[in-house]
């Protein structure tokens, strides 16, 4: 499988799959969600179950009329009922991907975390993974965590590394190169995450994560620019050529995300990992395009948590 | 005074000043430092004292011959002797700015922190301030701390805010707008820096920092893009129009610095604040241009710590 270099080739990959992905969408009421549904049906890689929560937007009947074989509608009374129904559907194997429409993320997550029919198995760690297309970088770059884990513990870092590698492999990286981010190369007890980094590298060297190369701590520039590595005299397959970055805390991950989208014309996709199926919970400030990319990513990487 | 929008106008401002700035440079041995000296002499806003530490690069005599009125050379035996001599010169009022050439930052800082003739007065906080010119932002943006304070305490945050405001005013911002960065707008005990942010805002409202507007927590996009603020329904003079950003920890500041320079074609200048004179300690990976910008910034903002 060839390495996917941008979101267009990611869509093409989805179109070449034998089966369409089954996506359950909770409360599709707003125009961004309408755009996402429309685009995914046009591109032809999704069958939708649209779960309504007391509101039936005018576009629902248009999609039912235009794509009767690929759209199913289920009506419930409230957004919370819609969330519960959708989560159960994923739980019972009726959908590959869960996507949030117009309801609060907290309300959807309450259903996702339900002990009986929820999607987070005991001992698993829920985290957010972003994939970004940067005009000046020659491949898609995966990173975590910009949105969910504030200060990953040792165990959480190890889980995050697993999900990030899974996403990289879904994108066609056979031996993903992962950079563990800090501001310097020094490992120190003053920065406990650098100690977690040491044990992640040890596990990777021992083959516990399959074929991959994990290195760090290093800064963003060393990870993504070979000149910087050369000046610092650092030699590693990861330096200047990272497929993925793991950030030490939520603030640094979030700064990376916001800086790239605002100042570097980057396009993003994001999803929750660690649950039994990927969950798309794009935020209001994301563009329709970004939400569509997120759905496409989740469809391609739907086996990442298995 | 007009707001400086880029580094070119900053240089022009320095050229328009009545007196040249006095810069003492420790161990000028490498080609980047040669570039900086040459450029500053050509632009005509600096008088240099070059303190040699056992090495006399060939370009030293050329500068002495070409600019006899603006270059003084002092020879010492070792880099540590050079550092001590240069720091004492600043301490005794013989220079406005201290700049590092080819020696380890740690060796220079040992002299800077000397109890007898050093430059950090009791109770002051040393911090790093960066100024960045981003092609897609319409003015110079000031931020801290990408390099020195790992996890600012309440007291350190308050000092950093003072230095950042001083740099903004040196750049011509009469009422600087400062954004306190986090990944969300929520203030919470789970993130102690957001509690520091509350007391900084309170002090700013009480006039303790002069004319300015300090707001947050908010993310980078909300601080620098008015659309993001509008979508989130946040209204503040800072939103979308920040003159300066204060980061919660060194990793997020460093990620901002590296991401901008690598992916957004940004040009930077940086210096240490909190000491009795600004100190330029550019790192090996910085370009000659960036080192020259740093010197120019330190010359313009040399009164920021007074």
TrEMBL record, chains A, B:
Keywords: Acyltransferase, Transferase. The keyword Iron-sulfur does not apply. Residues 80-299 form the Phosphate acetyl/butaryl transferase domain. Gene3D superfamilies: Isopropylmalate Dehydrogenase (3.40.718.10). GO terms for molecular function: acyltransferase activity. Pfam families: PTA_PTB (PF01515). The keyword Nucleotide-binding does not apply. InterPro entries: P_Ac_Bu_trans, Phos_Acetyltrans/Butyryltrans, PTA_PTB. Transmembrane segments: none annotated. Belongs to the phosphate acetyltransferase and butyryltransferase family. This is Phosphate butyryltransferase. It comes from Prevotella pectinovora.
